[in-house]
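Ops channel
N.P.: pipeline sanity check, posting one input/output pair.
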């Protein structure tokens, strides 16, 4: 089951549709049926659904694929649904919200560019580099008696997460 792209937000998707999505997840993946896991997976599905709508909007309505028809690639989107979606995205209230969000994002001087690993993976890499430097220094001068490296400071992780 899929949530319609015509719905304005994930909050208005019915519990029935969310339950069907949860059942499909359980059939596809080996996931225990707990309330916490259901909540997380449904939240993840909502984020993916919102991202898909954003992709359709930025690519097929306002982007470089504006002449193409996504109903050919995504067969579950009917022509009527697509036309209604385009109408909703070209509505003045939506365009105003979109412009405001773009202006806010334009002020983000320091977007992070971390991949799937996020700060955890970055911290592991930085600690490995630091440990290697400590080992090289202790091999060069064993009398130093260097101990384990200290944790990576937060500001260093912040800066490294924003370097291309």
């Amino acid at each position: 089951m899929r949530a319609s792209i015509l719905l304005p937000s994930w909050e208005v998707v019915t519990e029935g549709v969310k339950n069907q999505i949860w059942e499909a997840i359980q059939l596809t993946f080996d996931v225990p049926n707990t309330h916490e896991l259901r909540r997380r997976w449904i939240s993840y599905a909502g984020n993916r659904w919102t991202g898909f709508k954003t992709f359709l909007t930025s690519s097929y309505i306002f982007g470089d694929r504006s002449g193409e028809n996504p109903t050919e690639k995504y067969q579950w989107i009917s022509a009527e649904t697509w036309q209604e979606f385009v109408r909703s995205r070209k509505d003045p209230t939506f365009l105003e919200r979109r412009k405001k969000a773009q202006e806010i994002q334009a002020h983000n001087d320091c977007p992070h560019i971390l991949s799937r690993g996020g700060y955890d993976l970055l911290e592991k890499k930085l600690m490995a580099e630091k440990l290697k430097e400590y080992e090289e220094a202790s091999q060069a001068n064993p009398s130093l008696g260097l101990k384990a490296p200290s944790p990576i400071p937060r500001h260093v992780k912040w800066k490294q997460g924003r370097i291309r």
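N.P.: looks fine end to end. The chain has a mean pLDDT of 90.
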